[in-house]
Amino acid sequence: MSAVARTVRPFASRVLSQKLPLASCASRISPALGFPRGSVRSFSQSPFWQVKKYTESHEWIELADNGKTAKIGITEYAAHSLGDVVFVELPAAELEVGAGEPVGAVESVKSASDVLSPVAGKVIQGNSILEDKAKFINEDPEGDAWIAEIEVNDSAELEGLLNVEAYKETIDAE
């Protein structure tokens, strides 16, 4: 393999794996867009890396790559249903929660709702961004507006939760 190919291939793999709008980034990364997706070989990853699962009560949990910690939040559907969020109750650090137990609450102009932990674990921290800017949950509910980070007792509990396709089916049924 030539030196140029060894240099460009890792960059192309990272760029092609991102889901960016082509119009905004095509001019900056156009050389890498010439690589067809099928020709870039990717490395296998741990099955626990960035596993995101959902509950029927509209919470999500995303297991970190270490397989022990996870972030919990509400789904986009839940945030949209609640309307403008005005207050988020965050959990205290070191709080032990079981699966299905409240780990926080979200209040909006329409209603209030508990955020239930999808799995058992111990709270590491609440998302301090939401203390000052509760409406951030409406802007990025399944991203940086997570509610709590927990240390998961048993990552096997995630197997009983919904994947994204199954969750979307439950939304369509409502």
From TrEMBL:
GO terms for cellular component: glycine cleavage complex; mitochondrion. One of its GO terms (biological process) is protein lipoylation. Keywords: Lipoyl, Mitochondrion, Transit peptide. It comes from the Eukaryota. It is found in: Mitochondrion. Binds 1 lipoyl cofactor covalently. Its cofactor is (R)-lipoate. InterPro entries: Biotin_lipoyl (IPR000089), GCV_H (IPR002930), GCV_H/Fam206 (IPR033753), GCV_H_sub (IPR017453), Single_hybrid_motif (IPR011053). Residues 69-151 form the Lipoyl-binding domain. Its main location: mitochondrion. SUPFAM superfamilies: Single hybrid motif. The modification N6-lipoyllysine is found at K110. It holds the Pfam family GCV_H. Belongs to the GcvH family. The glycine cleavage system is composed of four proteins: P, T, L and H. The H protein shuttles the methylamine group of glycine from the P protein to the T protein. HAMAP family: GcvH. This is Glycine cleavage system H protein. It comes from Aspergillus wentii DTO 134E9.
